[in-house]
Amino acid sequence: MRTGSTKIFLFHNTKIMAAVNLRKGFVLVPQNLVAKLQRCYASSKQSKTNTLAAVGESIAAKGFLRPHKPYAPSTDAAAKIRAVAASLQMANGGDQRQLKDMEEKFKFLAACFQELQHDVPNSQVHEMATVGDVIAFYESAVDTTVPLDALKRIDLPENLHIQYEYLRFHPDTDTKFNGKTAFPKSSTLVTGLKYRRKYEGHEAKRSWP
């Protein structure tokens, strides 16, 4: 190493390990390390224990109506709401009773939640102006099913077919083309952290270069 030079050369036995250029800001690393860094994707499906926490994380990651819980109204939901209003001495005025007093409104909605185990979201509290509005809310179902999954419940037309799961080519499991691919040098990589545990990737053998 020369005094005043911006280049540092490191040697280990007879192999050059790295050359660092401090002025230009790049580093040359060993070739075997580069090969390891390039293998940052999944070439095989990652195994993971199917636990309750893992299932919960998977559902939460879907991103559809995550703040809401599914709710199916009971047939006597309206009667229960009116009974709650009567217990709080709010029966005067019937379903048209105004909820102008904030403290009274809070107690009423809290009691309705305790009775039906379904709360009014903060974004809809301002819409609850009367007892009738609260009844209408608790008579409305909340379905958090992803729209694509909802299609599985219905009978599709005969000329319509939906492939719900991904079809990824792998020569060991392919039965349609006997493991032959139109792109022999193209790998089927699973780069996502979420789906690499679900789908197995395939690293194709490539000739040099």
UniProtKB/TrEMBL annotation:
Keywords: Mitochondrion, Ribonucleoprotein, Ribosomal protein. It holds the Pfam family Ribosomal_L50. The keyword Cell inner membrane does not apply. It is found in: Mitochondrion. GO terms for cellular component: mitochondrial large ribosomal subunit. Coiled coil: none annotated. InterPro entries: Ribosomal_m50. Belongs to the mitochondrion-specific ribosomal protein mL50 family. This is Large ribosomal subunit protein mL50. The lineage of its organism: Eukaryota, Metazoa, Ecdysozoa, Arthropoda, Hexapoda.
